[in-house]
Amino acid sequence: MKEIKPESVRHAYIRLLTKGVAATTEEDIRLVDSLVKGGMLNGDILGFLTTDTDIRTYLVKGLTVEGYVFLQKLREEEWQESLWYKILKWTPAVIGFFIGLVAPAIQEWVKVLLGLTP
């Protein structure tokens, strides 16, 4: 059976900033708390839950400009760690290397085809 990887904090932030704040777990509520305190989300405190943990409940009004910039930065970091980014980044260098290896052979082949060699 395949193990389910735990969600990283970056993925959780991206999820909360893009798909809306549906903070149902303690971890989500802590992340929303940090986003509101950091100025990434506009929000108000609705109340406190006075049990074992101090959980705040927020009324989130929307994403701020700082939150949008933060979201773009998180998405950029996510893209730069992806396999596709690494493939696209290194493909021109690999193609150039192989072209450099076969270029002399292609030049000689063209000379033979055109009859330029004695």
Concise description?
This protein is an alpha+beta fold and 118 residues long.
Describe the 3D structure.
The chain is of the alpha+beta class and 118 residues long. The protein folds into 2 domains: 1-81, Orthogonal Bundle (Arc Repressor Mutant, subunit A); 83-118, no CATH class. It is built from 4 helices and 2 strands, in the order ααββαα. Strands 1-2 form a two-stranded antiparallel sheet. α1 crosses α2 and α1 (9-18) crosses α3. The longest helix has 32 residues, at 83-114. The mean pLDDT is 81.
Number of helices: 4
CATH class placement of the largest domain: Mainly Alpha
Distance between the termini: 68 Å
- Tell me what portion of residues adopts beta-strand conformation: 15-25%
Properties at a glance:
118 residues; alpha+beta; Arc Repressor Mutant, subunit A; 2 domains; two-stranded antiparallel sheet; 4 helices; 2 strands
Task: Give a topology summary.
Layout: H1 9-18, H2 26-37, E1 41-50, E2 54-63, H3 65-80, H4 83-114
Antiparallel strand pairs: 1-2
Helix pairs in contact: 1-2, 1-3
